[in-house]
Amino acid sequence: MNLKTITLGALFAAAAFSAALAEPKSYAIDPTHMEVTYSIDHAGFSTSKGRFADVASTLVLDEANPAASKVSATIKVASLDSGFGKRDEHLLSPDFFDAAKYPTITFTSTKVTVVGAKTAKVAGDLTIHGVTKPVVLDAVIVGLGPHPLTKGQAAGIHATTHIKRSDFGMKTYIPLVGDDVTITLDAEYAAQ
User: What global pTM score does this model have?
Assistant: First the structure.
């Protein structure tokens, strides 16, 4: 075997490795390391916060062409936890989420616009209370690479958006309970 053969072999191996890295990777949310939270004004005196505990989400991350990346998520409305059981019951009632009639919240991305090395605007369709509206998430890649515990490929994402709940047909007690809602996702995704 001569040097030319070894060099060509190394080049082909490097090209194959680079191609493998350039392929879009699919990730699934790690349910033990995620949080979807909301915050909303309460009577101008405090901010009411809560979370959803049951979230399924997939991410297709295209490192070679980040604008081709995609994300989708489904949240079970009944997993809402505001920290106060009576309030949860009321929020799940027809006055607000009407969880019996509309058991899920969904998000499906439609466009990713890269803003910086680790930031993007993720446009998509958000469905709450049976109403679908376009929203834009401000997303940050917190971490990307081998996870220090699992050693598998992982992605850490932080994303926020702001909506008006009245846009989704949830108008009860406005303005006593604010119309503007901030939604935040903090999650680890594991490569599939």
Answer: 0.87
